[in-house]
Design brief:
Helices cover 38% and strands 18% of the residues. By secondary structure, it is α/β, with parallel strands linked by helices. It folds into two domains: 10-144 and 289-364, Response regulator (Rossmann fold); 146-279 and 368-380, Response regulator (Rossmann fold), CATH 3.40.50.2300. Belongs to the leucine-binding protein family.
């Protein structure tokens, strides 16, 4: 994985806009802060790579509104304090027209007040529901919410006749929010949480938590809500303990990298994810099929590594911003913000977006596809 220093990088491609004077207008500045290194690098590294390659591609195809895109990015290392510092620099010193960032919920929320105060459109790539609920005028997000992920899992548990579960979750912002959402809606699906344990971001063994959950004879399945290394450790400990119960994970681990980390221990794990992990399993008339196949092919050819849903969040953020600018006919922040709220049936990697003034995410729980690990590969279940 590349080592990135916390410096701004300006990316411009070959500008070929027909009938446009390259020097006639300043570039449209896209500011980004991502966790390309640190504990969330599994998420942030593919996000940054995605932004880099598509800014280059868009510029090579003529830019947006006859103007180049200029990507200015910083690596926050997964630290909220750094995210706030870099977001402030992007907004106040770099004078960006649009902000993309927040690999994690914690880094996103550190920047939210700054974007709101600066009145610059901001699209987050993090999952917690608190990012867009309640609605904030200038803040949007591309992943489904943690509540939607919980709904998708609990629905499957209900279909499987599971009524009592053990919940284990990370204590980071993503894990805490997912735990809260799961606890809030479990009863709606006739499910009772009879064991509830947590682990910290630096924990390297979750045997104790899993043993306590497994010792509860009422538990019929276990659901882990977390991201990064934690869920992989949970899965390996799960196999080591010989726990014979269904194991569900959240969308926080939806990548081929998770399969590499867990090996045979992942067999049978279920989770909600975007169709990016199983693009060829989609029917030909699915409006997302061409999008996810194209993104997967371009990313893997460019970087020679497996695609991940996290990079897909960055793809959707950039493409939603570009589409909004084109609809608005302007990069002026207020016009772009208004255009984002008029997004209809936008086929992205993550789902079909329908963004409104009342919904700054624009996705439904059904945008999640339910996957299961079979023979070390992702398989589409529903």
């Amino acid at each position: 994985m590349r080592k990135l220093t916390a410096i701004a990088v300006l990316l411009t491609g070959t500008f070929i806009g027909v009938g446009c004077d390259q020097g006639s207008e300043d570039p449209i500045r896209i500011g980004a802060f991502v966790s390309a290194t640190g504990p969330a690098s599994l998420l942030g590294d593919p996000e940054l790579k995605t932004l880099e390659m598509y800014v280059e591609k868009i510029n090579a195809e003529g830019g947006v509104l006859g103007r180049e895109l200029e990507l200015i990015h910083y690596d926050d290392g997964g630290r909220a304090s750094e995210a706030r510092r870099y977001a402030n620099r992007l907004l106040r010193s770099d004078n960006v027209d649009f902000l993309i960032g927040g690999t994690t919920t914690g880094t996103t929320m550190a920047a939210v007040p700054l974007a709101e105060r600066s009145e610059i459109p901001f699209i987050s790539m993090a999952g917690a529901i608190e990012i867009t609920e309640p609605v904030r005028d200038w803040v949007f997000k591309t992943p489904q919410t943690d509540r939607m992920a919980a709904e998708r899992i609990l629905q499957d548990m209900q279909n499987e006749g599971i009524e009592r579960i053990g919940l284990i979750s990370g204590t980071d912002s993503f894990g805490r929010s997912g735990r809260e959402q799961t606890k809030e809606i479990a009863a709606d699906y006739g499910i009772e949480i009879v064991a509830d344990r947590t682990y910290g971001p630096d924990d390297t063994d979750m045997t104790s938590q899993l043993t306590r959950i497994n010792n509860n004879d009422e538990v019929e399945a276990i659901f882990n809500f977390g991201f990064g290394q934690g869920p992989a450790i949970v899965t390996r400990n799960y196999e080591h303990l010989g726990i014979d119960l269904p194991l569900y994970q959240s969308h926080g681990v939806a990548s081929d990298r998770f399969l590499e980390l867990v090996g045979s221990a992942g067999e049978g794990v279920r989770l909600p994810a975007s169709p990016l992990l199983v693009p060829d399993a989609l029917p030909d008339d699915d409006p997302q099929k061409a999008v996810v196949q194209g993104y997967k092919q371009e990313y893997e050819q460019r970087w020679e590594e497996s695609v991940s849903t996290f990079g897909g969040y960055a793809y959707d953020a950039l493409m939603l911003a570009v589409a909004a600018m084109e609809r608005a006919g302007s990069a002026e922040p207020a016009q772009v913000r208004d255009a984002l709220e008029q997004t209809e049936d936008f086929a992205g990697v993550t789902g079909i977006f329908n963004i409104t003034p009342e919904d700054h995410n624009g996705l439904e729980p059904e945008s999640f596809r339910l996957l299961e690990v079979r023979d070390g590969r992702w398989e589409l279940i529903d």
